[in-house]
Design a protein that fits this description.
This protein is mainly alpha-helical and 583 residues long. The protein has three domains: 194 residues, MFS general substrate transporter like domains (Growth Hormone, Chain: A, Up-down Bundle), CATH 1.20.1250.20; 61 residues; 274 residues, Up-down Bundle (Growth Hormone, Chain: A), CATH 1.20.1250.20. Helix content is 75%, strand content 0%. It has 21 helices and no strands. Helix 1 runs antiparallel to helix 7. It is found in: Cell membrane. It comes from Kitasatospora cineracea. One of its GO terms (biological process) is response to antibiotic.
């Protein structure tokens, strides 16, 4: 490589900080975009003149939510493996370029209605390819560049950016969507241009490149199986055949059974090929296996928290406290700032301290703190006092920050140097798949909770305002997923559910109450809390199981190399050498 064209050579003492700063920027921009759309959906659908609550438009809503995360979950392992073969920096740089170009295209959506939605969904899928390139190789580039005694700190900074990006996206999306929905894509462009030029000018291939062939059968079976499984789980929350959810839908069952079968076939394929994309032998190491299990469970719990807090704030708490529905995305982002602050406060510190004292207890302790915060949210009333809410979400962010960096250091330092790209991709796959799974798992649990009490609550509330029992019963029998999505998007659906004909037949005061700011939040607050009990109870269980998985120890081995390229080894007590500060 011609180092004359580079700012700092790979051998320069400061190169590792250049690699860290650029890859951290890449991870930040990639993960911000997994959540920035989440909180901006009302503004996006208004901007393209599409009603997301109409039955035919629910699919647009779901693919807006999960398309980006699904693609990154499917592709990160493949792109990590390609980084091992062709060069991690080469794949990473291409990812920055693709991400930047697609951001421009997304902001220029020329259509409205369903066409406008398809434009955004399609180009978000392409953007996710660029995001997956960044996610798959950033941790491997850092592991190559840093000596073992500093890897925990460096990976900690990178992972703080990765997970904090999903929190920052909530705040940033709320602010930008208030101004112009296209701005949530514009914001990527200058950052992307700077990051792309910086990456091409400054990053070097310092890792081990292992020539090899592409495992086409493994890649295809993994992509097909994981896509079918995750898509089926997501579509399972839609009503089907008179049922509140779609788990009896033949297409959903086909996706679940067929996806699982293809993934089993994928595992068989990977044991037969000479150069697998997904080296299953890495899971023989308890540290690698336990760290990835903890990543998956922690990601599901964290994703469920994000979705439930958005429903809670936008659909119930903010309207009850005087905020207009149009303003709720902005203020939901603002009121969730303590979550981000907690994560940013703990993440870098945990990464630094894990280099000195060991990563295992920090990772497990962070998950226990997260479980405690979920328990606190369980006992919080639906119409809470904000100080207690802020303290609990801050505590949740603090626990996530304590967990993320040490867990990543454990995973990445438990693998041989030549497999770091694939290992980085596997870790990102479990993290991104957890976010997609959280949509299906937690929305399903919430819908199940709502189905028990919402129909009677709707009937009583509507008839209490003069709606005829027949009309109230008809509304109450509608699938609760529509009500849940209305709360998620910050909509009041009563006007649409009853229709102008029913509303015009009511006294003006009653009609005004029904379509006002407080009736709908008061109506769903009780059933929502019933569902919340189930959701957060599962999140507590997942966090505690993940904490146990983080405590798994690997076999004893010789100390790791002091530089960036030695094989990963375990310290005598089972912590990875990177987390023990091996020199």
């Amino acid at each position: 490589m011609d180092t004359k064209k580079r700012w700092i050579g790979a051998e320069h003492p400061r190169y590792k900080w250049v690699a860290l700063s650029n890859t951290t920027l890449g991870m930040l921009i990639a993960t911000i975009n997994s959540s920035i759309v989440l909180i901006s959906l009302p503004a996006i659908f208004n901007g393209i003149h599409l009603n997301p609550l109409e039955p035919g438009n629910v699919s647009y809503l779901l693919w807006m939510l999960m398309g980006y995360m699904l693609v990154t979950a499917v592709l990160v392992v493949t792109l990590g493996r390609l980084g091992d073969i062709w060069g991690r920096v080469r794949i990473y740089n291409a990812g920055f370029l693709i991400f930047t170009i697609t951001s421009v295209i997304l902001s220029l959506d020329p259509m409205g209605g369903g066409g406008g939605a398809l434009w955004l969904i399609g180009w978000r899928v392409v953007q996710a390819v660029g995001g997956a390139m960044l996610m798959a190789n950033s941790a491997a580039i850092i592991t190559d560049a840093f000596p073992a005694r500093q890897r925990g700190m460096a990976l900690g900074v990178n992972m703080v950016a990765a997970i904090a990006g999903s929190f920052i996206g909530l705040v940033l999306g709320g602010v930008l969507a208030e101004w112009n929905w296209r701005s949530i894509f514009w914001v990527n462009v200058p950052i992307g241009i700077i990051g792309t030029l910086w990456a091409y000018r400054s990053l070097h291939e310092t890792g081990i490149r292992r020539p090899g062939r592409i495992d086409w059968w493994g890649n295809i079976s993994f992509a097909v199986g994981l896509t079918a499984l995750l898509a089926a789980i997501t579509y399972g929350i839609q009503p089907y055949g008179g049922h509140t959810m779609g788990w009896t839908n033949p297409w959903v069952l086909t996706g679940l059974i067929g996806g699982a079968a293809v993934l089993v076939a994928f595992c068989v394929i990977e044991t037969k090929v000479a150069e697998p994309m997904f080296p299953l032998r890495l899971f023989r190491d308890p540290v690698f296996a336990g760290g990835n299990l903890a990543t998956l469970l922690g990601s599901i719990a964290r994703g469920g928290l994000q979705f439930m807090l958005i429903v809670w704030l936008q659909g119930i708490w903010l309207p009850l406290h005087g905020y207009e529905y149009e303003q709720t995305p902005l203020w939901a982002g603002i009121y969730l700032v303590p979550l981000t602050v907690g994560f940013l406060a703990a993440g870098p510190i945990a990464g630094h301290l894990s280099d000195r004292f060991g990563a295992r207890l920090f990772a497990a302790g962070g998950l226990v703190v997260m479980a405690a915060s979920f328990a606190g949210l369980l006992v919080l009333p639906t119409d809470f006092g904000y100080v207690w809410f802020a303290l609990l979400v801050f505590l949740n962010g603090l626990g996530g920050g304590l967990f993320a960096a040490p867990n990543t250091a454990l995973v990445m330092s438990s693998v041989p140097a030549a497999d770091r790209g694939a290992a980085s991709g596997m870790r990102a796959t479990f993290q991104n798949a957890g976010m997609v799974l959280s949509i299906g798992v937690f929305f399903s649990l919430m819908v199940a909770g709502l189905a028990g009490s919402l129909p009677q609550t709707l009937t009583d509330g509507l008839t209490g305002q003069g709606v005829s029992p027949a009309d109230a019963h008809a509304v109450a029998q509608l699938p609760p997923v529509g009500t849940l999505f209305a709360a998620f998007l910050g909509y009041n659906p009563i006007h649409e559910l009853l229709g102008p004909q029913v509303l015009s037949g009511l006294p003006a005061a009653n009609a005004q109450t029904l379509t006002g700011r407080e009736f709908f939040p008061h109506l769903i607050s009780g059933p929502f809390h019933d569902g919340l009990m189930v959701v957060f109870s599962l999140a507590i269980a997942m966090s505690l199981v993940a904490a146990l998985a983080s405590l798994l120890r690997g076999p004893k081995a010789a100390p790791a190399d002091p530089g960036g390229e030695g094989g990963a080894a375990a310290a005598p007590d089972g912590d990875s050498a990177v987390s023990r500060g091996a020199a």
